Structure formats: structure tokens, C-alpha cells
């Protein structure tokens, strides 16, 4: 496979019209990226550790939503632990950790992206079922069921991230710097790699999230219980925040894919390569912000508990979020049961009236 790729691969740095392909080719973007990543690490690493500690040590009861938030914090916290490596990469504009670390670190980054969006997708699906089909919520809230779903999701995440192990490599660029980058950027396989990342990491899960919220909003309009509960606000904030921070990254991915589709040295290709090279470092580091944003969202959502609960305020927030779902489901289930009872009472009254009328008719006939 390696030899066939080498034969197909077009020249990179030797081409007179090639644009430097490393994300560290622009000093301004690397400085910006270094500052962003440093702030992200200082906020995100302790923040996600605090979320994990709150759930494991302080939460009295773990709901489905709490379990999903725990997995999300584990994924984000793992990424935050890797951030110093990328800070050093951008600061020195040189990859000094070898090919193995290049492949492993970018594999873990891609896995975190997939894990985050699919955990958010599972939150949206769970919310959809709890509001639209509350009578079926008990089927998916069992511990064994949730554990199996999460295991399948993590297995999918690990498999979907394998292209990072295949295509990432530490190599020299035309400025004689060592960079960690994809070394088959002009191969059809590389185009497929970036397309899969866009489709599996954004379009498919966000399509499911969008459909889920459309169904939820339609259902809420049909019910009497339109009160915005805490869990609705929190999970909607997580969804919107993730989209805002990851959308620029996926747009640059699409620009990079489009550039590979044009002939080499064509003006359109050169222009597109300049665009994605200029913004790749910034959009990649902005995407990291999503991993430190969730603890900040939890803090503002649960600040009303701080005075009463102290350090356990976040655990109480997650417990209340789980109770919101349970309460909402019970209300909807109770509504459906009440409707069934009302319908049954009406039918019984009709049967009673019809039997009374028939008895009256029989008496009249007998008397005659």
C-alpha cells in the first residue's frame, strides 16, 4: 500500500507552484493558536476534572443525562491533557516528537471530536424519546442498555479515527521544518479521508440532532406543558456551542478537499490552498475551545446552587437535570393515562346510558 501511494503521489515541496502544507507555515496564525490553546488548557483541564469529580464523588444518583455528561467530560478532559503537546508544536513551529506521537496525538484528537458530537447526539435522542415517546423511556434507561450503547459508540469512535493513524506523518517541509501533517494530501484517499471526517463528524450527527429538535419543538407545541426546564436550556446550549466552535474547522476541511480536486498549479487550487493554510491553525485551535466551554456552561447553569451546596453545586445541577427529564416523562405519561381514563369513563357512561334506555324500552313494551 505504501509503494502504490508513493507512485500516485504528486510532488509537494519540489513543485514550483506548491503552497506550503503545514499548519505552522504562518507565524501570525501560530501565535494566535498558541495563545488560544494556552487559555483553553488553563480553563478546560481543571474544569473537566472538576466535572468528573462532581459526578463520581458528589452525585447521589446518576441519571442517563449525567452518565452522558460524564463521558463527555472524560473525552474533553483527555483532549485537554494533550493540549501542551500542540502548544509546543505551534510555539516552536516545529514537530519534535517523532512520527509515532504525530499519529497517536492526532488520532486521539479525531477520536475526541467524534466522541463529543456523538455523545451530544445521544443526549438529543434521549431527550426526544423522553418527550415524544415517554411511555418507552423505561426501555432505554436501563443501566445495561446505556452501557451497551456507550460501548458501541466508543468502538465506532476508535474505528472512525483510524485514518489519522494511516495518513499522519512527521516530515520535512520546504522551509526545512519538521511538521506533523497528512502526507497524501493530493491522493484520492486523502480527499475521502477529509470527506469522511466532515460527513461522520458533522453532517450526519448534526442532521440527527436537528431532526430531533424539530420533533421535540412540534411535540412541545402540542402539549400543555410548555415550561422551559433546566435540562432543555443546558443541552441546547451544549449543542449550539459545539456547532459554533467546530463549524469553522469543517468549513476549512471542505476548502482543503475542494483544493485537491483542481489541477495542480491552477489559480483556483493555489487560492484555495492559501485560504486553508492561512486559517487551518486558528480554526483547529478554536475547535479546542468546545472542550473547555462545557464546564463554563455548567458553572453558569448551576450557579444558583453554589451558595447552598458549595463544591457539590455541579452534582446537584446534574441531579436536577435528570429529575427534569423524569418529571417531564411522568407528566407526559400521566397525561396519556388520564386521556385513556377519560375516554374509558366516557365509554362507560355511554354504555350505561344505552343500557338504561334499553331497559326503559323493555318496561314500556311489557306494560303495553
TrEMBL record:
Residues 47-298 form the G-protein coupled receptors family 1 profile domain. It is a multi-pass membrane protein. Keywords: Cell membrane, G-protein coupled receptor, Glycoprotein, Membrane, Phosphoprotein, Receptor, Transducer, Transmembrane, Transmembrane helix. The chain crosses the membrane at residues 35-56, 68-92, 104-129, 149-167, 191-214, 234-252, 281-301. The keyword Metal-binding does not apply. Residues 336-354 have a biased composition (Basic and acidic residues). PROSITE patterns: G_PROTEIN_RECEP_F1_2 (PS50262). GO terms for biological process: inflammatory response; phospholipase C-activating G protein-coupled receptor signaling pathway; positive regulation of cytosolic calcium ion concentration; positive regulation of macrophage migration. It comes from the Eukaryota. Residues 329-368 are annotated as: Disordered. Residues 355-368 have a biased composition (Polar residues). GO terms for cellular component: cell surface; plasma membrane. One of its GO terms (molecular function) is complement receptor activity. InterPro entries: Formyl_rcpt-rel, GPCR_Rhodpsn, GPCR_Rhodpsn_7TM, Leukotriene_B4_rcpt. It is found in: Cell membrane. It holds the Pfam family 7tm_1. Belongs to the chemokine-like receptor (CMKLR) family. This is Leukotriene B4 receptor 2a.
